[in-house]
Amino acid sequence: xxxxxxxxxxxxxxxxxxxxxxxxxxxxxxxxxxxxxxxxxxxxxxxxxxxxxxxxxxxxxxxxxxxxxxxxxxxxxxxxxxxxxxxxxxxxxxxxxxxxxxxxxxxxxxxxxxxxxxxxxxxxxxxxxxxxxxxxxxxxxxxxxxxxxxxxxxxxxxxxxxxxxxxxxxxxxxxxxxxxxxxxxxxxxxxxxxxxxxxxxxxxxxxxxxxxxxxxxxxxxxxxxxxxxxxxxxxxxxxxxxxxxxxxxxxxxxxxxxxxxxxxxxxxxxxxxxxxxxxxxxxxxxxxx
Length: 289
Known about the structure:
Order of helices and strands: EEEHEEHHEHHHHHH
Number of strands: 6
Strand content: 5-15%
Largest sheet: 4 strands, mixed
Oligomer: single chain
């Protein structure tokens, strides 16, 4: 969901710049910052964001400045006259000398110089240019997201391939694990002196105990989740990020269960390696729409 887009348009003597950036978020959280004269198009811009962006924390910045670097200004003559009258009245009532340089003093007073680039008088054509620039910036952002998505797709494929490869090592340890568990229990019983036990009952308890440690179902479900993750990753429908996150959680559940049932150092190491690859997927899947 991370991305950045920018567009610049010229209208008359104004250069209108729109910048859009987005970060991860569970829903669309938009912030639009506009110069005061453009406030009337804010709702329209928010609608444009909702239409083109599914979710993300989106910040839109719109600025307006002089296109040629020269800011046209007007001298506010009515304001100047009012200032001069009040200063003359003040000097008379307080017995103060009048200023030596009226021009310098009056031009320094507030609101005497009016910047035409920031005037509140904007036409519909200028507002349409603001909307058009915002749309172009959004398209640039979407393209940025698409490039990031292609990179993430390759990343996920590599990590899933690594999990699949590590997962293939489970059988190597699984075949010898049951015999090791059985041997360890019988050896421990043999060390107990003066203790008699029923061999048939022992076999039943061993079968029950080993069944509790069996990871066949976890292996089947994990393989299904791996296949489903790849299927969803390559799906043509947009907005699969949340689903990929859910599948990754289910993969983690099966891997954790295998680890808790492993009861063997080598198999637990395999589980840790799979979890390491899966955690990298979980971190990056938050960037997917």
